[in-house]
Every structure is written in C-alpha cells, then in structure tokens.
Amino acid sequence: MNKPELINAIAERGNLSKADAGRSLETLIKTIATTLKVGDSISLVGFGTFAVKARAERTGRNPQTGQEIMIGASNVPAFKPAKN
User: 54 and 83: one domain?
Assistant: First the structure.
C-alpha cells in the first residue's frame, strides 16, 4: 500500500474527506518525526513503538575501491511491532 492508497483507506474507514485524511496522516508523520528528533519514543498500544536507537561506529567498505572505511556512530529511527 502506498501513501495515496492509505489516505483513501483512512478516508473510507473514518468517514472523512480525502483532504482531511491526508492532513491527519501528514500530521501524524510530522509528529512522529519531531518526537524522534528530540530523542523521545512513541508507544501505540496494540500497534508498536517508534524509538531512536544508537548505532555504533563500524568498519565498512567503499564499494568502488574495496578500501576499508570507518562509518561513524549515528542515531537511527526504529520501529518495534506489538506482539499481537
């Protein structure tokens, strides 16, 4: 399912206009992104948890030359689905 299909499904199931469903989805995405940027997590019971995970520094390879390079530590968004 892509974004327009998701908007259509939200509009149909929520008895909303497509414009309202689209604004709701955009607001949800922006809220999740903003929350993760400050390092907090979002837990939606029955769905899952969005969180930020620390990725350690590691050794990688340049695909063009095969030379080893160091890839710096970073924080990455992660999603852990609920058990059900």
Answer: yes
Cross-strand partners of 16: none
Residues 10 and 33 in one domain: yes
pLDDT in tens, 53-79: 999 999 999 999 999 999 999 999 999
CATH code for the domain in which residue 73 is found: 4.10.520.10
Nearest to 62 by CA among 75, 53, 74, 71: 71
Task: Tell me if 59 sits within 8 A of 71, measured CB to CB.
Answer: yes
How many CB atoms within 10 Å of residue 7?
20
The model's pTM is: 0.76
Mean pLDDT of the residues in the chain? 94
Q: Which domain holds residue 62?
A: 42-84
